[in-house]
Amino acid sequence: MIDEAFIQAALAEARRGLGATSPNPAVGAVVVRGAEIVGSGWHRKAGLPHAEIEALRSLADPSLAQGATLYVTLEPCSTHGRTPPCTEAILNAGIRRVVIGTLDPNPAHAGRAVGLLRERGVEVRCGVLEEECRRLNLAFNKWIVTRLPWVIAKAGMSLDGRISRPPEAPRWITNEASRADTHRMRAQVDAILVGGETVRADNPQLTVRGVPGEQPRQPWRVVVSRSGNLPPDATVFTDGHRDRTLVFTGQPLREVLRELGQRGITSVLIEGGMRTLGEAFDARLVDQVCFYVAPMLLGGPKLVTGGLGAGQTSEAPRIVNPTYERFGDDLRLMGEVEYP
Known about the structure:
The chain has 340 residues and is α/β, with parallel strands linked by helices. It has eleven helices and 13 strands. It has an eight-stranded mixed beta sheet. It has a five-stranded mixed beta sheet with strand order 2-1-3-4-5, with helices on both faces. The longest helix has 14 residues, at 2-15.
């Protein structure tokens, strides 16, 4: 259980980079001597040193790496990209043992660093808290293989699945705690996507607000429109983040997502509306859901998802490994989507 405890420490480091490293994964590392952490670090941003380098540089004395164990959540890189390969730095530092959470999801690189380190006499153990380390980077894991972003369907709804509101009613269905959680999620994705009708009806900001800590990176704002008839004075076209707004007109959602992936966008939060979410589910593009349910019954014509829907219940997408969390009186459902 010692290895598991130190991988947990590395995971805590990795989480500090969530939302800042794309298109790279979030990775954490710790250096251990005699059951004591003597160095730690996380990957902060693409182009900056990787977690292993940060951990080695944090040592009070470089000699502390001699004969030590390095714990890292993701297999170290073994090729030269924006930065030199971490395997070289690990070998040069004199690390004796490396414990890895999960292998590189890129089939071209998976296991390569493990082989290189073992060839040079370094003891390597893989797969410690593997599932937890894998889930840390769901978006990167998908994008690096398919070049398509991880897609999260997010919505706030009434208990009867409505997003309709009476004409003069307040804008929000869910409560303040749910909305604060939405901003935390926005801070961890690369882009927020809505349909043209949402822009026309709600004039949303689609920005990260009220998240404590360092100034969060603002995600791209993506508007998909069939007609291209969008108000030029909408907030997404006029505020201080207007240069991070993209508009796609008359393109299928799958094609839009492919273009976003080519731009290095690894995760997309679809925030509506009904037609856009319906198209996403019909085309089997949604990987995960995040639904906030308020304890009220609204009725009305607008459901959380439109589209064609499932022909029969056996064809319906299902939420696997769902988690439920209360935010005041609201309930949040999160889970990955599994298609028959």
